[in-house]
């Protein structure tokens, strides 16, 4: 029998959290009231009579197909997921989130403006009692450590290898989980998509229904992600089940849409809430303002806050803090200060967050005088005394933006007032000094920490070590490492990695290599970054075989290098003429399971091409196909260039044709390479035939322009002139530049008449040639005794108003 709680939890049980900073939506903390006795199958306040209770239309219970979770339920359920759903495949939910926008029938209306969604406040008359409280659930920390929860999480991690037995175990376990424990399972998932998959799967199981707190938990989780469609469907499911939704539920969906960058859909949630018969309250209005501020719509946020007050919803400090943040983000600091000043008259005193928001902006801009004035106003107007949190905030923000001196001044001021700044604040200033290369002052500050009784930790020391290494003072960094041991602070892997990085950049990669070999003696373990630092140091110093040995050790230690790191080493080997060694090293990495991609193969192919070993390059091309790394257009372009350089254009052409048959699209570099090599050898007809095949696959607007310019560069003006008609078909600025190149080439060979004919063809296509270039052509025509052509050329400019007729010039009547 399925137990139903007939609206056990009423609206009066809702209680609004008074403050939030990171997210304006008052997050629901889920816990079980001590007086509530949840059974293993307890139901939320939902109407399940429209659901088939886990049966499909034919009366069959959930599927037991191996490895597949089959969701069964009412065919009219709005939240229908495909009947066969692989719980182990994250792409399922991801594709649903991206491809099912058309499901939102209530959110339709592409032509609605954002302001239309804000009209929901105008229809609210304030006749209903405002919901001040939201349902408060807390999940005890012990729930996360409960054996049933841990076993459920373990089974979920095995989802990719599910069989009927494992799925049955989780199904049986689900019926034993209490609602807080189901919430704990959802919160324990590192990937929110996995949590959503589990939510969907559990909802389809026979004799199980989600409790209301599970819905709230799922929506809270999704509000911190961009999975807005998932949040929207959970909201729809709550409506189908008859679960009473508070405004905060809609706020969760709104925030998720905002994170996904869908402002219009986020605001339409207000309209959807109105259609659902839910009146807005302070929480949802504050969320709407937050969404508008995050979308850089400050003016609309201000208008919305005015409408709130007109309908009787009084903003609180959190609402005003959102607006203050909006003013600061738009660099309107005066507006933020004015709003703070007006808050008392509106019945809401500013809190420290209000001031801290403005202080952070002033710290970023280094407006220290105004910052101190604001602190005085905080004490005088709002009776808020700066405390240790205030000074820590100022120190961190100033240090973050590189204002170490001002941060240090506030640190001293805080200590004079009796506040104790912790090592985190000191470390922030030390890091800021080190970034600017002021290592001496940073070291002095560390010594002062001992005087103040604040012992530096490993983070502080590591920052100093890295600072010394950045300035090339590696010996001082070593001494600082020894000082850490003397003061009882053990260096960690990050500390040693910073020192090794300094050694490598100082040309002491061999010494860094030896430090890795002795790492076990000093009780520290190198990580992937440590090995990578030393490997690149050896590579930069030309010790390529030692670098290859380091890669082998990385693989042996379980830190395989990335394809980028491998490619840098392959490139260095090829540049050093060791292409055969590069090929062997790449094959070794491939055999050991390293991630080798097409770029790595292309690097080696290009290396053989640079060594003029074209047979080996072609052999590598075949090896790529055998290894499953299909070459791309870059690979074929490199091979074509090498064959074309040798004049073997027939073989080069075959490579391009093969590339086209493989479905690869030629890139602009491919076009330029093909044009250059064919023009170099004067094979214009063959070039045009190959270009026709390439242009069918991928259009390239500048193809014939490049041909003409390249022919001009090689002095083949006759062939270039023949192709001019293909260029002048479009008559653009690019075509005009090509014509200018041809005219200049004619002028350089003293063929002014041919240049004049090119200019005339430009005029006929309504293209205006360059005036200065045409003046040179006219001058050359005059010198050659062709006065009529010279006058005609300049007259064309006069007719088009590009120049005024001058006295003494020869102009034909």
UniProtKB/TrEMBL annotation:
Superkingdom to which the source organism belongs: Eukaryota
InterPro entries: PPR_rpt, TPR-like_helical_dom_sf
One Pfam family cited in the UniProt record for this chain: PPR
Keyword list, A-Z: Repeat
Segments annotated as PPR repeats: 246-280, 281-315, 316-350, 387-421, 422-456, 457-491, 492-526, 527-561, 597-631, 632-666, 667-697
GO MF term list: mRNA binding
Family: Belongs to the PPR family. P subfamily.
NCBIfam families: PPR (TIGR00756)
Name recorded for this polypeptide: Pentatricopeptide repeat-containing protein
Annotated organism of origin: Acacia crassicarpa
